[in-house]
Structure formats: structure tokens, C-alpha cells
């Protein structure tokens, strides 16, 4: 059986979806020029990326709705609950970011409302660029809101390195600007919010790892929600074998283990096939120990050198004298973020940040 490629994310905004938007907009605004909207929205659609399609829908609505900003918001408020996809609703906050920056209070209320249907994380960043302190003050209040979508917007929208968006240079340079938001959310009951807080902090580790480590070292990890955020926030540093990060999660000590039967099979593959990594860890300690086990693949690059990519495997407590068998399958295939080249690839097992064993496989040309 051959793998069937999933449709591109941008196909969420296909001709059928555009018709859905036109139909539902007409339902809340009978004077809507549906044909004009569709003609504008479909022009060159195939060449547009997903975020360009979000912008296209927003721009197409603006092109055919002869209302002022407050009046348009009224009909978009009515449209939001009628849309059949949370992701599709991204064009609503995009409209606010494009046309509402001079109507701050009304726009903040609109983003707070629209984020409950999808997310306003991309739109709020334009307001942070336009009026940082005023917008940040609103987001600090959002971090205390009863609605998890609004609380998440406070964290996600202020991430310094939000994917698919521009970086927030002020926050990237001075992460303490958002410290109150992170503090308000560090024990949030919602997993949706906790993931955002962890991702926000992981962003900061790329530029200010010591700031994040000091912040989390000051937290009480007795709360399981806070402990969850800490583990996921430090994931990049843990992959790097950072001793402070490993210590925070209880795995800072040198692992007292032996590694046995390390193998990568098959030894030779072609692109698109899978490898299997298997090995066993045997405790040589007299007491239980916390282990964080990762593995790294030294990928062959275009110039012939190799560069490592670390992958998470598992974290567990290994009792005195116990053994743990571990296996992982990895699909070696082309990705938008990684191009593969033929040659000998090394696979390394990392335990508490220390390399304990290596094996190899060959990717055929």
C-alpha cells in the first residue's frame, strides 16, 4: 500500500470553502455581493500560500462590503459562529489587524471575541508593533480571563518567535516584558494554555536560556500543571544536554547505566524507508534514578559533512538493577524542513545529556 499525501493546509481555503463563506455572509448581510467576493477571492488562488489565502479572504470582504469599520465588525460578529472551520475563521482577526488599528478599544474587543472561534494570535502582533505598551496591558488582563482561548491569546500572541509570523523584536530582546503573563499562566488548568506557555518559554531559550532557567528554578514544581510547563518549556535545552535544565526535571545526575544490544536496522535503506533503533539500558545504581533518553541522527548534508538533529525518546525512572528495552522507528523521508543526502548516517543514544552509544546506517543514492 502506498502512502497517500495529505492535502496541503492551504486547501482549507478552496473554492468550496470560499462559497461557504459567501453563503454564510449573505445570510447575515443580505446585500452582500457574493459574486464580487468570489471573483476577487478566487483570482490566482492556486499560487497563494495558506496565510496569503487568509489575507485574500479578508481583503476580498473589504473590497465588496461598503460599510465602515464598526458596521463591518457587527456583521463579522454574526458571521463568526456560522463558519464551519476554526482555522478558516483566521480571516476575521486578520480583518481587524488590517482595518482597525486606529480604533483600538473596539479592535481589542473584537480580537477577544474572534479568538474564541479560532485564534487571533497573528492579528494581535500587528497591534503590538503599532502600540506595544497599550496592547501588552490588554494582553496582561486577558491572561486572567475566564475563557481559555483568551488566556492562550495572551501567551501565544506575545511569543517572540511565533511560527508563520514576524518576530517581536522587543520581546525577543527583553523577555521580562511578558513575565507577568507567563507568571499568571504558569499553573493554568487548561492544556491548551499550558502548551502555549511552554512554547513561549521555549522560544525564549533560543536567545536567553539563562533567563528561562532562572525563572523556572524560582517556580514550585509541586503543582503538576507547572511541572508540565517546565518540562516542555525546557525541551530544547534538554535535547542539548543542558545540566541546569536536566536538574530542574530531576535528571541532572550522571546516569548510572550500561547500554546493551544497540542496533539500527536495516543497515542500508533508500529514501522513504524506515529505520528501527533498538537497545536496552541496565541500571548499575543502588537506588532508582530519573533518566531522560533521547537520540540524535547525524544527517549527511549537501557538502558531505554531517549535522546532528536530536529527537526525544522517553523519560522514566529506572529502578536499581532493572533493565529497560527501548525501540523507536523513524521514517527517513523528505520534509519541507529537511533534505536528505546519500551516505553514512550516525545514530547516537543520549541519556541525561551524555552520549552512551552509537550505530550507523547508510542511505543509498
From TrEMBL:
Taxonomic classification: Bacteria, Pseudomonadati, Pseudomonadota, Gammaproteobacteria, Pseudomonadales
Source species, domain of life: Bacteria
InterPro entries per record: ARM-type_fold (IPR016024), DNA_alkylation (IPR014825)
The name this protein goes by in its record: DNA alkylation repair protein
Species of provenance: Pseudomonas veronii
Pfam families in UniProt: DNA_alkylation (PF08713)
Amino acid at each position: 500500500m502506498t502512502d497517500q499525501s495529505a492535502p496541503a493546509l492551504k486547501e482549507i481555503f478552496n473554492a468550496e470553502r470560499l462559497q461557504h463563506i459567501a453563503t454564510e455572509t449573505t445570510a447575515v448581510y443580505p446585500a452582500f455581493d457574493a459574486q464580487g467576493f468570489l471573483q476577487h477571492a478566487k483570482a490566482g488562488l492556486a499560487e497563494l500560500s495558506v496565510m496569503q489565502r487568509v489575507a485574500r479572504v479578508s481583503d476580498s470582504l473589504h473590497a465588496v462590503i461598503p460599510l465602515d469599520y464598526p458596521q463591518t465588525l457587527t456583521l463579522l460578529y454574526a458571521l463568526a459562529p456560522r463558519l464551519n472551520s476554526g482555522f478558516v475563521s483566521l480571516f476575521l482577526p486578520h480583518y481587524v489587524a488590517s482595518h482597525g488599528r486606529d480604533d483600538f478599544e473596539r479592535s481589542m474587543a473584537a480580537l477577544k471575541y474572534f479568538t474564541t472561534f479560532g485564534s487571533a494570535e497573528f492579528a494581535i502582533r500587528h497591534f503590538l508593533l503599532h502600540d506595544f505598551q497599550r496592547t501588552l496591558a490588554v494582553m496582561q488582563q486577558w491572561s486572567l480571563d475566564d475563557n481559555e482561548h483568551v488566556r492562550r491569546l495572551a501567551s501565544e500572541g506575545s511569543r517572540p518567535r511565533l511560527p508563520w509570523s514576524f518576530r517581536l523584536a522587543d520581546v525577543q530582546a527583553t523577555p521580562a516584558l511578558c513575565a507577568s503573563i507567563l507568571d499568571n499562566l504558569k499553573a493554568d488548568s487548561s492544556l491548551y494554555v499550558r502548551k502555549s506557555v511552554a512554547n513561549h518559554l521555549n522560544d525564549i531559550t533560543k536567545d536567553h536560556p539563562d533567563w528561562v532557567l532562572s525563572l523556572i528554578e524560582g517556580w514550585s514544581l509541586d503543582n503538576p500543571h507547572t511541572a508540565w510547563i517546565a518540562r516542555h518549556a525546557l525541551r530544547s535545552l534538554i535535547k542539548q544536554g543542558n545540566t541546569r535544565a536536566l536538574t530542574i526535571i530531576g535528571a541532572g545526575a550522571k546516569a548510572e547505566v550500561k547500554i546493551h544490544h544497540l542496533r539500527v536496522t536495516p543497515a542500508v535503506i533508500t529514501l522513504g524507508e524506515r529505520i528501527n533503533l533498538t537497545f536496552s539500558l541496565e541500571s548499575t545504581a543502588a537506588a532508582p534514578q530519573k533518566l531522560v533518553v533521547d537520540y540524535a541522527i547525524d544527517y549527511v548534508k549537501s557538502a558531505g559533512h554531517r549535522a546532528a538533529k536530536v529527537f526525544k525518546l522517553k523519560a522514566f525512572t529506572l529502578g536499581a538493577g532493572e533493565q529497560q528495552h527501548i525501540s523507536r522507528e523513524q521514517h527517513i523521508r523528505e520534509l519541507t524542513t529537511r533534505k536528505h543526502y546519500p551516505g553514512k548516517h550516525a545514530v547516537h543514544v543520549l541519556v541525561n545529556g551524555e552520549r552512551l552509544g552509537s550505530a550507523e546506517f547508510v542511505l543509498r543514492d
